[in-house]
Amino acid sequence: MHYDRRGEGEPLLLLHGGMGIGDDWRHVFASDPPGHSVIVPDLRGHGRSTSPPQEFTFKACAEDVRALLEHLRIDRIKAIGMSMGAKTLLHVATARPNVVSAMVLVSATPYLPVPLRAAAAQFTQEALERLTDGERASLRARHVHGDEQIAALYEMTRGFATSYEDLAFTPPQLGTISARTLIVHGDRDPLYPVELALELYRAIPQSALWVVPYGTHGPIFGPLAESFRAAALAHLSKI
To answer: Is 73 exposed, middle or buried (0-12, 13-18, 19+ CB in 10 A)?
Structure first.
């Protein structure tokens, strides 16, 4: 598992989205948040991390994160997760509530809804073969272990279409989360309807909800980055 650790201060874990890499956070935080020791991994099978032979699960990603924190001798952490990273944090925060003191969940979901399943089903071998040279080169530059890794990422994504047990959080399970939680969701998210953010907000005890007007999936990049940075860091620093 590849990771970067930078800076001094309170540990802050940043978890990227599916098909992304840890360096994607540079588009949100041009410089690392002051006062934090920032920990930025590439999740399993992504970027510079290797892909284990077993089937991909978000729960396994959460176990990777637990192992990383144990390796770094970190008992308690604050965290931001985007999409896949947010799902991973839900597993961490429900399995080990004492580990996460505060977190920000961007484009999170308690379960995989129909729109996501339909989109995931399109990640076929045929779709992979139809990639342009430019698209393939972009993927190779980000995921450095070659075409086999890229094919595995397509297989991972296609598997979400028929995955039902890995991500199936009930309100009682979400109610065990002790971390102060900010839920950030675009009201135009084509994969996860905004109603799912409301489900998380109603179930997680110490939660706040920010619905981004006209925001799509992952509404934290480009012109939205500045307001997200301010809101996320204010939430994480709140006593």
So the answer is: exposed
- Locate 209 and state its tokens: 């909800």
User: Which of 218, 119, 212 lies closest to 161, judged by CA?
Assistant: 119
In a domain, 135, yes or no: no
Query: Residue 122: inside a domain, yes or no?
Result: no
Alpha-carbon Rg of the chain, whole angstroms?
Answer: 17
Number of domain units in the chain: 1
Q: Which amino acid is at 183?
A: I
- Position 35 scores a pLDDT of 93
| Look-up of token digits 């990603």 | 61
pLDDT tens string 139-153: 999 999 999 999 999
User: CA 16 to CA 84: how far, in whole Å?
Assistant: 7
pLDDT band, very low/low/confident/very high, at 239 (cuts 50, 70, 90)? low
Helix (H) or strand (E) holding 186: strand 180-186
Task: Kindly state whether residue 87 falls inside one of the protein's structural domains.
Answer: yes
Q: Is 129 helix (H, G, I), strand (E, B) or coil?
A: helix
Query: For the domain that residue 49 is a member of, what is the CATH number?
Result: 3.40.50.1820
From the list 144, 167, 163, 152, the residue with the least C-alpha distance to 62 is 167
* Percent of the chain residues topping a pLDDT of 70: 100
